[in-house]
Amino acid sequence: MANEQEMSATRQRVASVAQAMLSGELAFLEGVFELAELSHDPALARHDAGLRLFVVMASELDGLPIGPARQYWSKAALLRHQPSIEAATVWARGLSAEALRNLVARFGGNGVCGLDDG
Known about the structure:
This protein is an all-alpha fold. The protein has one domain (4-105). It has four helices and no strands. Helix 1 (4-23) runs antiparallel to helix 2 (28-38) and helix 3 (49-60) runs antiparallel to helix 4. It is elongated and about 45 Å long. It starts with a helix and ends in an 11-residue tail after the last helix. Mean pLDDT is 87; it is low at 111-118.
């Protein structure tokens, strides 16, 4: 079980990633994958409703060259997938804006609030 300090740090990271996605400081799809990864952290509820969406979206985006994996793709493949990445970004942004705002509100303060608030 995670201690309170670890829980607070993880919740703050969730809020920080969500805020960076909303502000455009973080590439949106990279943020989707990071939130999906954070959803598995023991400091968060196992099935936190606020993060479930990002797990599903990451699963849908799994075959695209996003984040650090891009370095292993050829330039031709990156160009070929760019329209799909752009469409996926629009799709993900539209689907998740409210969820991101909720994560910032839930975890952005002191990091201690109900985990199933949605």
